[in-house]
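Key result, reporting period 2: structure in, sequence out.
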């Protein structure tokens, strides 16, 4: 009975596991980035992911490298890798350092709506009123977390205190630089998804991801060359704790996360899978408090739920 239920709902279970995997990888990469820098983490984790995907592809398809990809696949998937992995993750991993994985992943909930907007502009995809409403709900949930209202303090003018009548100003609860970095990560991921969809066509998904990862490796290697950060990379490789957490993140993120998300989409609808996988901003709250000792208030929990409701509404 239980086995039959699991088989029947394997798509939903796969989506739930994907959400857990992405939660683990976000926390692992946050910890590693704070120890050795986001740039080193990005390059090393992509190299690890490339070999994991290559081994998997060799077992399943009989080839380690995607030599059967057409020029169309290489061009557009490479662009997707540059936009998603290099630009998007460069911003996101820096956001991990500035505002932490919990707030960064919440803002990353904007990635699906951003992908839809980019798809509308670039590929002529349609946006329904329900999807527009879902975007507003998602924005509202995130705004509830990252914005706060404070009463103005009285000013001292010519030795006289000038009261401001208890006016309230809307301010950011977290550093604006970290919020903008996370938003940049969401834009990169959304743009990368659109380019991936166009570039992949009917090509094998795992091989497509490997092309994107390879482009990411080349892109970050170029950054290291221009910025002359090879010494920092060497130090990162010698940091045992950072490498352990980085390896965990690479295994649960680009490898297992991608695999189970595809499994989820295969055995259930895209909408159901996407809705379940979007619960990362809520799942990440307990370990952020218990493991990383981050401060938390109920408003963040409510905002995360509202943002997730917006994502769910987007895919219904």
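The corresponding designed sequence is given below.
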């Amino acid at each position: 009975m239980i086995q039959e239920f699991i088989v029947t709902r394997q798509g939903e279970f796969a989506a739930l596991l994907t959400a857990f995997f992405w939660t683990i990888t976000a926390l692992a990469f946050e910890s590693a980035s704070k120890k050795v820098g986001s740039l080193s983490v990005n390059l090393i984790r992509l190299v690890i992911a490339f070999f994991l995907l290559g081994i998997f592809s060799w077992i399943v398809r009989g080839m380690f490298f995607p030599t059967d990809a057409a020029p169309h696949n290489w061009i557009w998937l490479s662009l997707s890798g540059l936009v998603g992995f290099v630009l998007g993750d460069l911003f996101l991993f820096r956001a991990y350092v500035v505002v932490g994985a919990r707030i960064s992943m919440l803002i990353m909930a904007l990635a699906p709506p951003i992908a839809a907007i980019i798809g509308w502009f670039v590929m002529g995809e349609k946006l329904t009123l329900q999807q527009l409403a879902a975007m507003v709900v998602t924005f509202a949930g995130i705004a509830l977390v990252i914005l706060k209202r404070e009463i103005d303090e009285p000013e001292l003018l010519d030795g006289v205190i000038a009261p401001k009548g208890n006016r309230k100003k809307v301010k950011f609860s977290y550093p604006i630089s970290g919020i903008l970095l996370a938003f940049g990560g969401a834009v990169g991921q959304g743009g990368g998804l659109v380019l991936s969809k166009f570039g992949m066509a009917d090509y094998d998904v795992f091989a497509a991801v490997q092309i994107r990862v390879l482009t990411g490796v080349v892109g970050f290697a170029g950054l290291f060359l221009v910025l002359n950060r090879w010494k920092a990379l060497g130090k990162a490789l010698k940091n045992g704790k950072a490498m352990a957490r980085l390896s965990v993140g690479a295994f649960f993120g680009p490898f297992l996360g991608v695999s189970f998300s595809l499994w989820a989409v295969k055995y259930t609808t895209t909408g159901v899978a996407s809705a379940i996988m979007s619960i990362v901003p809520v799942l990440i709250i307990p370990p952020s408090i218990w493991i990383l000792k981050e401060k938390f208030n109920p408003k963040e929990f409510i905002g995360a739920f509202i943002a997730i409701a917006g994502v769910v509404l987007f895919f219904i």
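DSSP finds 14 helices and four strands in the chain. Residues 221 and 227 are 10 Å apart (CA to CA). This case is discussed further under Risks and Mitigation.
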